[in-house]
Amino acid sequence: MTADAHAPLPSDGRPAVRRRPGRPRSAPQAEPDTNTRDEILDVAARLFAKQGYEGTTTRQIAQVVGIKQASLYYHFADKSSIVVALLDGTVSPSVSFSEWLRAVEAEPETKLYALAAYDLDVILNDPWSMHVLSRIPDVAAKEEESGRPELTTLQGRYLELARSCAEARAIDGESLSVPETDFSLVFGLVESIVAQRYWGGLETRAQYAATVPRGCLRLLGVPEAAIGVAADQAARLIADYPGAQAR
Fold first, then answer.
1. Which residue range or ranges hold the HTH tetR-type domain (predicted)?
2. How far apart are CA 36 and CA 51, in angstroms?
3. Model-level pTM?
């Protein structure tokens, strides 16, 4: 994209939104393009971060993007729908990484450690703190309505890897090392990092996040020595992931 004229946000120290060349300003488009949708999301994230969810209106978002409010509704039914799309965007990188892991030759505990570490990094480096918005009642209701397919997919990948770890560590080769009902605790432990945005600084959250992948493996009965090996191998997997450069 090239830098073009645009309606600026109030000064917040962040770079201005850049637009596609040739896009009409504040005029209906015969066929609204996907770039408009992306711009709406980018502007909305900035405004939510600066003004809060309640303090931001769809009219404001449309004005900053440079489109009519009616054009915004072509892409999103309401403000909470914009937030749900933003939340899905915070999950997509981890879903892509989990898909890549499926084709990689590695022990299940290494893959699970890598997924947890990568996912935590995505959450901690969310520039707009979008995860916090999921606590807003009408956003939560919209999330439930949509089913959050990306989040459901990611949770399924955690459950797959948790089962593989439990099967690999089975004492007699048949029974699981931990009850199957405990598998969901792995995903819950990773997601608990979202709550850490409410206390401590980035260093505190990073220290907490560093313990989570190990905690996931401990939940599944992986010995400490094996956890250390998994941590080293997981770091190499993450370094080799082609998608890491796109983040």
1. 34-94
2. 22
3. 0.74
